[in-house]
Every structure is written in structure tokens, then in C-alpha cells.
Write a structure and sequence with these properties.
The chain is α/β, with parallel strands linked by helices. It is built from eleven helices and 14 strands. The chain has a five-stranded mixed β-sheet.
């Protein structure tokens, strides 16, 4: 009787371990579908990617991309707004499923996250005050103050060049620091600068130089190892690209198509 008791207990223990293993192995996509929503982090203060319109509604290119992506997954997009520097950390702590807010793909970030296929391609520009004629290249940033967030994909490179990072939370704050002389340069991509100058046409700012690299790739970061979710996101993005949704959203917010690399656009124009 005692032997049978321990046999039953051992079997129960094995079953419990198996159940725990199955539960632990449940993938993130399954959890998202069960919950009916994908938790997306955004700044909400970064026009035209994520911002609030005059009525207070959260809008923007990435907001609409997130909603379209969620629809493809059969769920809703649930947005959480926070400062940029805390957004990616919220993926690590599982408070967010992802961040869709002009997230550029870098080698450093790829060590921590799996990235979707890129859905946006953009050049970065160094911007200074209109009367500053001392900055023309990356080498000229030695000893200069750069207004940007600490998790900017170029932050380490800028510090290695001898620049000092002046932390900011919004693009408006970055421009204000440069205009007031508290920073020498801020870093905008082409569409952010265009939008800022549209809102502030009298701002005495100019492009010091374009960062001499290929277009930055913007993609969707996910926790490592969530292959079903990564595949589903890539499938959804591909469908949004093929049905013209990404292009339409880009033209709506940026007056141009930034959803393919500029090299591909140039090739297409040559072939035409």
C-alpha cells in the first residue's frame, strides 16, 4: 500500500511538472490573442509619429500602424504613454508587449530584442542654430553639447566623439535647448525636423549635416525568443505593405513614402 501511495505521488509530481512546463512555454502571441489586445508603448509627445491632436486624441503615424497591425492580429492596440527612456525597459519587465514609436534598429538593441522587418526608413540630421557655422561633420561634435535622449541609437557614438549628451524628453525640448544656447546641436530625422519647422516656421534652425550613413531602419522590437509573435508581426507588416496601407499612412503624415529604402526608390525611378 505504501509503495502504491508513493507511485501515485510520483506520477502526480511528474504531471504537475509537465503542466508547469506547458504553462511556462505558452507563447506571447497566444497570451495576446487570449487577452484580446497588444500592449504598445508610445511617447505621445513625438509628432507626427505619436502625439495628441487638438481634441486630445492620441494620433500619429505609428499610432495608426499599431492599430492596423493589431487588427491583422485579430486584437486591439492598447497604448501606454511614457518618456522614451523608459519605454524599452517596459518590454523587459513585460508591462508592454512592444514599442511602436520610431524605434531604430541598432546592433546594441538587437542583443536584447528581436526586431520585425523594417517598415520605415529615414535619414538622421544634426541640427544647429542658423548662425552656427562651426559644425559640418561628426568630427566637429567634439566638445559640443548634444540635446537628445540617453537611449538615442547614436548616444554612445556621440560620447565617443567627445560630445556631451544633454538629456531631453521631447523633440520640442531639444529644439528649445539649441535655440536658447544651452545645447549646440540636436538630432532630428528628416520628417521630425520638417514637422517642427511647420509648427514653428520662425525657428532659427538649420541642418548642420546629414549623418553619413545609410537610412536608419525603423522596426518593431519584441522580447527575445517569441518566434510565433515575430512571425505574426512580420506577416501583418507584409500584408500592410502589399495592400498599400503603410504607404498611405506615410503619405498622410509625411507627404511622402518612407516605407521603402531610398536606394529602392531610386532604382524604381531609374527603371521607369
Amino acid at each position: 500500500m505504501k509503495k502504491r501511495f508513493w507511485t501515485v505521488m510520483a506520477a502526480a509530481g511528474i504531471l504537475a511538472c509537465f503542466t508547469m512546463a506547458v504553462t511556462a512555454g505558452a507563447d506571447q502571441l497566444e497570451d495576446i490573442v487570449k487577452e484580446g489586445k497588444i500592449k504598445v508603448g508610445v511617447e505621445g509627445t513625438y509628432p507626427p509619429f505619436t502625439y495628441h491632436d487638438e481634441s486630445g486624441e492620441l494620433v500619429g503615424f505609428d499610432v495608426e500602424v499599431a492599430k492596423a497591425l493589431a487588427q491583422k492580429l485579430g486584437v486591439e492596440a492598447s497604448f501606454t504613454e511614457s518618456d522614451w527612456d523608459s519605454l524599452l525597459a517596459a518590454i523587459d519587465s513585460k508591462r508592454l508587449d512592444t514599442v511602436i514609436n520610431d524605434v531604430s534598429v541598432t546592433e546594441e538593441r538587437k542583443k536584447k530584442y528581436d526586431f520585425s522587418d523594417p517598415y520605415f526608413f529615414i535619414a538622421r540630421q544634426m541640427v544647429c542654430s542658423s548662425d552656427n557655422d562651426t559644425i559640418h561633420s561628426m568630427e566637429d561634435l567634439n566638445g559640443k553639447k548634444i540635446a537628445t535622449n540617453m537611449t538615442n541609437s547614436y548616444a554612445q557614438q556621440l560620447e565617443d566623439l567627445g560630445a556631451t549628451i544633454v538629456p531631453i524628453s521631447t523633440s520640442d525640448e531639444a529644439a528649445t535647448l539649441v535655440l536658447s544656447g544651452r545645447a549646440d546641436v540636436c538630432m532630428f530625422n528628416t520628417v521630425i525636423l520638417a514637422d517642427y519647422l511647420k509648427q514653428h516656421p520662425d525657428a532659427a534652425l538649420k541642418v548642420a549635416f546629414v549623418v553619413p550613413e545609410k537610412d536608419e531602419e525603423i522596426a518593431i522590437p519584441l522580447r527575445k525568443g517569441e518566434e510565433p509573435l515575430l512571425e505574426a508581426v512580420n506577416k501583418a507588416l507584409n500584408e500592410l505593405r502589399e495592400d498599400g496601407t503603410l504607404r498611405e499612412l506615410s503619405e498622410k503624415y509625411f507627404d511622402g513614402d518612407y516605407t521603402t529604402p531610398s536606394s529602392e526608390e531610386e532604382t524604381a525611378q531609374t527603371e521607369e
